[in-house]
Amino acid sequence: MSDLGLDLPYQLSIALETAGVVLGGLAVGLLLKWLVFALLRVHSRHTESLVTASVARWLSQPSTYFLPVLVLSFMLPLAPLAPKPFEVLRRITEAALISTFAWCLVRVVNVAEDLIRQHYQLTEADNLRVRKLYTQLQFVRKFVVSLIIFLAGALILMGFATVRKIGTGLLTSAGIVSVIVGFAAQRSISNLLAGFQLAFTQPIRIDDVLVVEGEWGRVEEITFTYVVLRLWDERRLVLPLNYFIEKPFQNWTRTTSQLLGTALIYTDYTIPVDAVRQELQRIAEASKYWDKRVCVLHVTDSKERTLELRALVSAANSGNLWELRCEVREKLVAFVQQHYPECLPKTRTESAPEAATSSLAGALEP
After folding, report:
1. Helix or strand or coil: residue 279?
2. Cα 8 to Cα 10: distance, rounded to the nearest angstrom
3. In angstroms, rounded to a whole number, what is the distance separating the alpha carbons of residues 209 and 103?
4. From CA 340, how far away is CA 343, in angstroms rounded?
5. What does residue 300 show for φ and ψ, rounded to 5 degrees?
6. Phi/psi at 306 (nearest 5 deg)?
7. Torsion angle, alpha carbons of 119, 125, 130, 132, to 10
8. What separation in angstroms does the CA of 169 have from each of 161, 164, 174?
9. What is d(CA 178, CA 68) in angstroms, rounded to the nearest whole number?
10. 135-254 in CATH: which number?
């Protein structure tokens, strides 16, 4: 009993010293974090720096955990623990340090992405080179983040002897496992390879205008396994990556965003085509959507009762082209209605002469 009585204060003393080391390390780390970001705030007040703002935005939260754990890992040898309790505490600290460091690395990727996006603006009129870069950037970012998380998880698990033994046992049956995993992951691996192919050969890019499955939309997101299209009516069309490798689709912005479009109107054969052609030129020149490249009018078909007039116009992008086509169609129809109403489509009928009609009526009388 006396030994137990003497042991209790000693154990309590060790627990208090260990708690003091742990709490002290965490407190010093929090103080260090506060000092670093206070300096960043002072710096940002004097100079408008995107780097400072991005670091403060992305790294403030993970550094609240990483810096205290980092300081604790340096102060941990000061804890007066027995070997086994010390090893448990060291393992926990090591796992926390790896996790928080990986979190910081993921946020550093976000900082790098901010800097690139600031330098290359997607809102520019001629943004083909920027869209190429954004497509590669999005895929590389997802790959790097996944790699960081995978390596962090592997390092944490390999820190435990039991996991290392399991890993060694699994390696002995690697042949069977590789065959099973190969069949199970065949689709996923093909999607991953398709993702690499799309990112660097770039048949599609971020913000490209596509016509897929009869739907018009812009590429909003490219992930490891699928592509998201934002359709014109704000729906989202999600397609697997392999779709863009195996099936045909239309890309309206592959090398340039400039496009040609048509507006069809139908009139009577008596329409003065030259007058309509001059009106089309006037409409195009007055429109803010025309890019001054192409503006022509042709008679493209002659049907049984009408002529088909096709107005061919050009615009800088698909959005402007849609508005221009609607504007040309509306104003050409209004022009024909106001100046040549007799040239609107009509159906002609021919009645019998009056004399023939009278004789036919007499013949029918009793």
Report:
1. helix
2. 5
3. 35
4. 5
5. -95, -10
6. -140, 160
7. 170
8. 13, 9, 9
9. 41
10. 2.30.30.60
Q: Cα–Cα distance between 320 and 159 in angstroms, integer? A: 59
**Cβ partners under 8 Å of residue 154, min gap 6:** none
Percent of all residues in the chain with a pLDDT value above 90, rounded to a whole number: 41
User: pTM of the prediction?
Assistant: 0.58
Q: What are phi and psi of 249, to 5 degrees?
A: -155, 165
What is the CATH code for 259-343? Answer: 3.30.70.100
Token representation of residue 329: 């169609």
For the segment 296-309, what is each residue's pLDDT rounded down to a tens digit? 999 999 988 899 99
**Rounded Cα distance, 227 and 225, in Å:** 7
pLDDT > 80? residue 27: yes
Rounded CA-CA distance 327/316 in Å is 15
Measured CA to CA, the distance from residue 245 to residue 215 in angstroms comes to 18
Alpha helices (H) in the chain, listed in sequence order: 2-46, 50-75, 83-119, 128-158, 161-172, 174-184, 186-201, 243-246, 273-286, 318-339, 354-364
What are the residue boundaries of the structural domains of the chain, listed by start? 2-119, 135-254, 259-343
Scored b (16 or more CB within 10 A) or e, 307-340 reads bebebbbbbbbbebbbebbebbbebbeebbeeeb
User: DSSP states of 247-269 as a string?
Assistant: S--EETTSS-S-EEEEEEEEE-T
- DSSP reduced 3-state for 214: coil
| Dihedral sign, Cα of residue 177, residue 179, residue 183, residue 187 | positive
User: What is d(CA 304, CA 214) in angstroms, rounded to the nearest whole number?
Assistant: 31
Higher pLDDT, 283 or 40: 283
Identify the burial level of 33 via C-beta atoms within 10 angstroms of its C-beta, where 0-12 means exposed, 13-18 middle and 19 or more buried: buried
Residue by residue, DSSP assigns 3-62 as HHHHHHHHHHHHHHHHHHHHHHHHHHHHHHHHHHHHHHHHHHHHS--HHHHHHHHHHHHH
